[in-house]
């Protein structure tokens, strides 16, 4: 450890210190701009490590890669090089890391390809061509947004087709075959061994929900 004792705790005000030292059980910290949220988070992780946790047992989810790098750098100032072994990253990057290890349990190769927006649109265009549907009506950007919304709401093709409200919305938008486009899009991605950005979230949910071979318990116990 680069800092000894509790010197890093002395840099915090009373409320920040209370949040940092509350390490047992779930904790919710509500804080506004400029109140030292990042400092509290990083020092809390450092404090957990100082109390004996292994760096690879700590998971910190952020919204940007920049925030994850800054968090590790700040933790490193307290605990040294072991900060690099902390699992800190965006939702997408951390979930992709877990999926690389577990994807075969849900039918994907461990070296699955990650499709970006343009890749996804190209697959959608191929599906539309296959179904002889007009890209004027089934605009690839709109179709992609529709599929993304379904995945974000944990609605796979099998549930989408049964959802009367979604089907009615598609009918009003003059896209009655949207459910079939979605189904074929997912099938094409899976055949190609690929996931789009939404899949990185949805497929991890699927993995933990199905819980093959105790995967959920494995990560509950790890972090």
Which key features would you list for this structure?
single chain, 223 residues, mainly alpha, Rossmann fold, Arc Repressor Mutant, subunit A, 2 domains, two-stranded parallel sheet, two-stranded parallel ribbon, 11 helices, 6% strand, disordered N terminus
Structure commentary:
The structure is a single chain. 57% of the residues lie in helices and 6% in strands. With 223 residues, it is mainly alpha-helical. The protein has two domains: 7-85, P-loop containing nucleotide triphosphate hydrolases (Rossmann fold); 113-210, Orthogonal Bundle (Arc Repressor Mutant, subunit A). The strands form two sheets. The chain has a two-stranded parallel sheet.
Q: What is the fold-level CATH name, i.e. the topology of the largest domain?
A: Arc Repressor Mutant, subunit A
Helical fraction equals: 55-70%
- Summing up helix and strand content along with how strands pair, one would put the structural category as mainly alpha
The geometry reads as elongated
CATH class of the largest domain: Mainly Alpha
Mean pLDDT value:
92
Question: How many β-strands, per DSSP?
Answer: 4
- Percentage of residues in DSSP E strands: 5-15%
Order of helices and strands: HHEHEHEHHHHHEHH
What's the layout of helices and strands?
Elements: H1 14-21, H2 37-50, E1 59-62, H3 65-79, E2 87-90, H4 91-102, E3 113-115, H5 117-131, H6 140-152, H7 157-160, H8 164-172, H9 178-191, E4 194-196, H10 197-210, H11 215-222
Parallel strand pairs: 1-2, 3-4
């Amino acid at each position: 450890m680069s800092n000894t004792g509790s010197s890093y705790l002395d840099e915090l005000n009373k409320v920040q210190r209370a949040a940092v030292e509350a390490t047992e059980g779930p904790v919710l910290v509500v804080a506004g701009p400029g109140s030292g949220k990042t400092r509290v988070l990083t020092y809390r992780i450092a404090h957990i490590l100082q109390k004996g946790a292994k760096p690879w047992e700590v998971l910190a989810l952020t919204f940007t890669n920049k925030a994850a790098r800054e968090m590790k750098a700040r933790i490193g100032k307290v605990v040294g090089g072991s900060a690099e072994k902390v699992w800190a990253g965006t939702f997408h990057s951390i979930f992709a890391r877990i999926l690389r290890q577990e994807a075969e349990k849900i039918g994907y190769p461990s070296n699955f390809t990650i499709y970006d927006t343009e890749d996804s649109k190209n697959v959608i265009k191929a599906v539309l061509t296959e179904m002889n549907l007009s890209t004027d009506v089934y605009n690839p950007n709109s179709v992609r947004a529709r599929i993304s919304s379904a995945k974000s709401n944990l609605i796979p093709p099998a549930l989408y087709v049964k959802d009367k409200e979604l089907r009615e919305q598609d009918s009003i938008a003059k896209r009655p075959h949207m459910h079939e486009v979605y189904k074929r899009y997912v099938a094409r991605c899976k055949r190609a061994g690929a996931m789009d950005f939404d899949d990185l979230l949805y497929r991890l949910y699927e993995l933990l929900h199905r819980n093959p071979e105790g995967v959920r318990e494995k990560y509950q116990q790890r972090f």
